Amino acid sequence: MQPPPTPTRLRKSAHLSTFAHQGAVYVYHDLFGFLLQMSPDVLAVLDAFGDGAEVKDVVKRFDGAFEGASAQEFVDVFAQQFCLVEPDDVETDGLWPMVAIKAKWNVWRRAGDRVTLWTAWGDAPVRRIELDEAETRIWDDLDGERRCNELRDRHDGPRVQALITRLTHSDVQAVKLCMFPMSTFAKRPQMAPHYLGSTMPYPRWSPADGPPPPATDASGVVSPAEYYRHDVADADAQFDHEETTLSHLFRVPHPALHGRTYGAALVDALAARGAVPATGRVRVVEVGAGLGYVAAAVHDALTSRGLEVDYTIVELAPTLAAAQRARLAGRGVRWFEGDVLAVELPVGEADLILANEMAGDLPARRLSRADVGLDVDGGGEVDPAKVAALGRAGELVRELELRLDDAPEPFYLMTGALELIGRIARWLAPGGTAVVTEFGEYAIWPKLSTHLDHPELSIHFGQLHQAARARGLEPELCFVIDLLDVDRTQQGLATTRSHFRALRAMLADAGVTLDKLGYTPAMLDALLAGKVARAEIGELRWDKLEDRLMGLVPHEFKALIARRPPLADDGN
Question: Could you give the CA distance from residue 295 to residue 5 in angstroms, rounded to a whole number?
């Protein structure tokens, strides 16, 4: 069925909020919960309508401004999403035929006949939304099937309208409106509109604030180095909120690791591969040690085996280095503070190198297929002259014999991670082993993560494997959950960053301290015992631990295990 024709005169909806993150702009419809992502220049089309304008005039104004798309196409999409409406529209009238659906990642607690919701979107302050008895009855009737006009028949109409408009607003995001009931998507959940499961945790933004900061610099380089040097102010908050890691969730003895911590399980896995000596001294280098939990666990696990441990940490972030020093006091650890791609370590003297969940924070370069001589729409051959013109990035392509013909448009070349492999190869002693873990895939080009407050890339582990082999190492790839022998049968608590902040605030009001851990149902029940009944809490989501744990997908984490061959035995 074709959408109705766009009217000749439109105005911008009075119920829109705009946000920005890593160069992209997001428009959130505060009446319906619709969410659109776009570039700032496309938003200018929407803003051009103001309180009312002729469609033909706006389209003419932006004629030719967008490569591969016309301004009319954007106008049509904005109209279909009610971001553009007719001048005399009463926008709230559009609520009544819509189905009201409780949005994902809500946090609420029921006390008798009242429900209180908590929100904590992004870095915004925690908000409490207290519903009275009548509002709670309406809330309970939001079953994803009833349309708002049906709710109006069952409850007081003005109260229904007031509550729905309050809860759909981007400040709350507890309700989304949809033309179809959720049962429509029961057999094909992938057909449900994406906005129903999306949230908006990014900072509010308007064109008056200036262009949103992009993910890359002017030359297309992604490099979070300055972020780690200067913007990490609170070490604990960094891993509790900004960038939780898998090792952080497993920093205490965990049932999915058979009662071990992440670091202890890692030592067991390496020992099983012959990478830990039976006696004597072991020289360990850890790159990017976070809060020091892995270092403490690895150090203690190695000493418990009777080994003399010589432990070195390379850390870029001064705030994190300070936290590590406090946690590792008394263990004789030494530090090199600075960029791992610039620091000089002794050649051939490390028995074990750990680079845990940090490779995605190393520099990468955003390139187009045309930059290397490939056709943008597929095919073509790499042009050696163009590759050579890329400087060090081009040298890496040639030295490591990387294939580029399967690169998407555009693509990220993970220059920093590839350089790290070269440094690891220099630092490893004969017979030494390195472990590089991060989220990524074996044969998929890096993707930019958008959920953090700084740019970070997934890893193309096939290219890391190729780099390790080219540098004279013996590489192996595996899933981190297999390396650590994670119990895949366990269930894990699923959250987002904002959902966890709100859940933590809600439980704090009940006298419960919710640390950032990979909770199983039994772990959470033990924490809540005697204070809060789990049945009172909405919304708790549980998933197979390997598929979702807090805000992470554990099966996405891979490990490159690279060994430097021992010196040949000449028989003398």
Answer: 63
Tell which residue, 360, 366, 436, has the closest CA to residue 407.
Answer: 366
**Residue-wise pLDDT tens digits, 377-410:** 888 889 999 999 999 999 999 999 999 999 999 9
**How far apart are the two ends of the chain, measured CA to CA in Å?**
83
Q: Which CATH superfamily is domain 253-368+410-486+554-563 in?
A: Vaccinia Virus protein VP39 (3.40.50.150)
CA distance 525 to 519: 9
Query: Amino acid identity of 254?
Result: H
Tell me, what's the pLDDT at 259? 97
Side chain identity at residue 377, one-letter code: D
- CATH topology match: 9-89 vs 253-368+410-486+554-563: no
Provide the whole-model pTM.
0.92
Which tokens hold the place of 439? 């989220």
What is the per-residue pLDDT across 133-146, written as a single tens digit (0 to 9) for each? 999 999 999 999 99
Write out the E strands in 470-517.
474-479, 491-494
Please say if the pLDDT value at position 572 is more than 60: no
Token pair recorded at residue 308: 């003399």
Q: How far apart are CA 433 and CA 474, in angstroms?
A: 9
Q: Which residue has 């969940």 as its token pair?
A: 357
| Counts for the chain of helices (H) and strands (E), in that order | 19, 27
H or E element that contains 300? helix 293-304
Report yes or no: 449 and 458 within 8 Å, Cβ to Cβ.
yes
User: Could you tell me which of 408, 519, 410, 413 has the C-alpha nearest to residue 463?
Assistant: 413
SS3 552: strand
pLDDT confidence of residue 68:
79
Residue 150 exposure: Cα atoms within 13 Å on the Cβ side: 11
Residue 569 contacts residue 563 (beta carbons within 8 Å): no
Residue 57 has pLDDT above 70, yes or no: yes
Please answer whether residues 117 and 107 qualify as being in contact, where contact means their C-beta atoms are separated by less than 8 angstroms: yes
Neighbours of 386 (CB within 10 A): 15
Domain boundary assignment for the chain: 9-89, 94-197, 253-368+410-486+554-563
pLDDT tens sequence across 267-325: 999 999 999 999 999 999 999 999 999 999 999 999 999 999 999 999 999 999 999 99
| Omega of the bond leading into 401 within 30 degrees of 0 (cis) | no
DSSP annotation string for 205-263: --GGG-SPPPSS-TTSEE--HHIIIII---HHHIIIII---HHHHTSS-BGGGTTB-HH
Separation CA 496–CA 237 (nearest Å): 15
DSSP label at residue 103: P
CA pair distance 515, 524, nearest whole angstrom: 10
Q: Rounded mean pLDDT of the chain?
A: 94
Quick: pLDDT tens for 328-356. 999 999 999 999 999 999 999 999 999 99
Does domain 9-89 fall into CATH 1.10.40?
no
Percent of the chain predicted with pLDDT > 90: 85
The one-letter amino acid code at 114 reads: R
Q: 3-class DSSP state for residue 388?
A: helix
